Amino acid sequence: MLTVPRxxxxxxxxxxxxxxxxxxxxxxxxxxxxxxxxxxxxxxxxAMPTTAALPTKAPVQAAAATKTPGPPSNTKPxxxxxxxxxxxxxxxxxxxxxxxxxxxxAGNDQGGLGPDSMVSGFDPTRKGFYNGGDLNGLLDKIDYxxxxxxxxxxxxxSFKNKAVQPEDNSAGYHGYWVTDFTQIDPHLGTNAExxxxxxxxxxxxMKVYFDIxxxxxxxxxxxxxxxxTGYVSKDKEPYRTASGNAFDDRDFxxxxxxxxxxxxxxxxxxxxxxxxxxxxxVPAWLNDPTLYHNRGxxxxxxENSFYGDFFGLDDLFTEHPTVVAGMTDIYETWIRxxxxxxxxxxxxxxxxxxxxxQFGPDVLAYAKEHGKDEFFMFGEVFDTSKxxxxxxxTRNKMQAVxxxxxxxAARSFASKSxxxxxxxxxxxxxxxxxxxxxxxxxxxxxxxxxxMGRIGSFISTDNPGADDAERVTRDELAHELMYFSRGNPxxxxxxxxxxxxxxxxxxxxxxxxxxxxxxxxDDDLLGTDATHATDNFNTGHPLYSKIRELAELTKExxxxxxxxxQHRYASDGPGIYAFSRTDAKDQRxxxxxxxxxxxxxxxxxPTYIAKRNYSLIYGDAAENSKTSAGGELTVTVPPLSAVVxxxxxxxxxxxxxxxxxxxxxxxxxxxxxSAGDNGRIQVTADVDxxxxxxxxxxxxxxxxxxxxxxTDDTAPYRVFHDVSALIPGTALEYRAVVLNNAGRTSxxxxxxxxxxxxxxxxxxxxxxxxxxxxxxxxxxxxxxKASRVVRFERSVAGGPWTAIGSGDDSSPAYTVMDDLxxxxxxxxxxxRYRAKLDGSNVLSNVRxxxxxxxxxPDSVTVAGSLNSEMGCPDDWQPACESAFMAFDPADRxxxxxxxxxxxxxxxxxxxxxxxxxxxGQDGAPNGxxxxxxxxxxxxxFRYSHTTHVITAG
Length: 953
What we know:
- About 15% of the residues lie in helices and about 25% in strands.
- By secondary structure, the chain is of the alpha+beta class.
- Strands 14-13-12-7-2-1-16-15 form an 8-stranded parallel beta sheet. A 6-stranded antiparallel beta sheet has the order 17-18-19-24-21-22.
- Helix 2 crosses helix 9.
- The two termini are about 15 Å apart.
């Protein structure tokens, strides 16, 4: 997430400005269609069994079947399908922040707000303020952008922003504090200037993408109870209708019968507006305070990650149909009036699923109605687990998400020289994204960005002793991996000039034009002696030249952009990772081999073709190499380099299709070793052959028609079928159709499965923790449904299970308060908790705790990448007293308030001044680092030694 700018000409018509937007019949039908597709996935809804026919306990694993399958419903018998390629699988994105690129018009620097920087937000000496770049600057330098091989310009949010938020001591240069969604920020130019930029890009064959926000607006709403207050959960204070009746918003998400709300009675906090800002936002419906969640600041975890304010930013009530319709209306207007080619969607994972299930299909349908057949949307889901990020393209029907897992894998390979087998495992998990209308080939891939930091910065941090030549070479290796592997590569502006910086957020937002920011002037750029004191538009820079070369090569050989990505070889340790790319039509094989070690490496790489010559088209290696009788290609790759070979002819056509057989379908639920998704079933096919194949998976309920789940074109062949909307115990059948490279097919026998029961997990209190008084017990369900009711039980000292509280139907977190004080239990008594899904036999894990006051440690440290900003000699210092928290006996929490500059930080709780005992995300011992995206100013950290959870807010 970031911040947004924008400016004059565009105004939504008076009907839209005056009140809540209306939805067209087409929009309603598109949303309804998406929901039907979601609920049935590849299984016809009319074939679903009734609830009465369902077993009470569904087995997780399917049993084998021996039925002979019938023909697919939509094809002739035995006809296979090619793996999906949408129009956007070969794009080269250039991601640019207009304020930091080029100043084409100094007259708009102050945005028409005068010289006071705390009013206008313009101060070119401060990295958290407007620096002067604009749309005219982009237009003036469009040759430079196109020269990289760019096919699509992606702009950070450009709508009109609240110029300054004094409490953050920062300005809205980034574009994420929107007040007017109909106007370009005056600091960046006008609507007419945006139209000129888009028209010029289109005339050159380039597209323009907008970065958009649906989750929040600028911080305009305050609370009667205080500013930027702590989050209040739905269980502690539910939403109430205007007449005062409690309700769960998830039961009405996106529906026309959403209850009427009242600002004075419906929320845990009472929203108030400064009289001068009561009509600040545009369109006018955004000024209604009942269209916001009004629950206080988020800690970015659990329920509050959906409902809480981002550091005070007004969090929209995206479950409300008026918000869904209003946001859809806003962005359809930009498509119609300006010809925008697509959207990158901010903070997607912090918005409820129902919003995306309506917004995505509706906007896409509207774009196609207006001639945008290649319109493309992708969301920001800041997570590295594919089982989670893929839910937005499968379950939520969006086209794509930013490939954060790729960024993590690419850094580990190219910058850290980690085990090459990690890339093998990474790409094997691409199957999570495969369904009937999307797959991994659509994902934008990237190496760094405006929030997390630059690839140049990561390389410098990971290799502190490396000279400039090595750092440039590693940067080139990262770009080679990005351009040659599947997905749409994204270049973050300035990376082509070797920009670095000490971290993320403001530290990764340097200007390409000469800077006056002191913090930028001491950056050590890669591949050049230049500094940020001068313009940096050097088309001869080694990284600019390398990116241009990669773009030109992949344009000449399009299979390197969207051909099937097949794993071939991975060293056990640093060394070679090799894969092939093959276009299903042309069927020439390209072998790509990358070496992340500091020595030359040789590998024997399997291919599709025996005794065939392969010629070098990229890299420093032998010009030609011939495969063995077994189809193996020997390649030698220089240190920290890549080579690409092309087969001299197409893959030989097979005379007959190979046999294909399904493995027993399995629940894709999480295991101790990996994250998962219990709302999906893993279906795997074994193909008896070694050529190029495409395997289509189909599903049906018994007696129903076969429908396509998805097509996989790389071994191992599998899909993860989303069954989250189906009733547990629903019987399913699967089969696979293999298509060989000569167009011949064979069909597997079918295998049976049932939709698994949901999995309940007790999250709080922490296992083995010490509790007393009123204990909060929290459980979650996978997959989540708004209709679920969860009950809780307690066992004391090994005794019988007894019910506590009443059933909770308030999703996504189910909670009960257990008053242990009323039981008068002795210290040391063992208490166990579990959850039970109402109307079923589904039980959660058991969570065991001990009664008594938790013994407190001698010290707790907020240890992380923010320690130097706190006054410590370096970062990640568990013994630094400046980062010590103070214990508050009133609420038994450890607390520390620190004034931090804007940036992205990571931290954990370190106990007693060392790493021997530490807690990370969700209170996990030795857990992952917690990420803090901070806009600048005071932030309070809180740690509970009962739950081991540390938060910042």
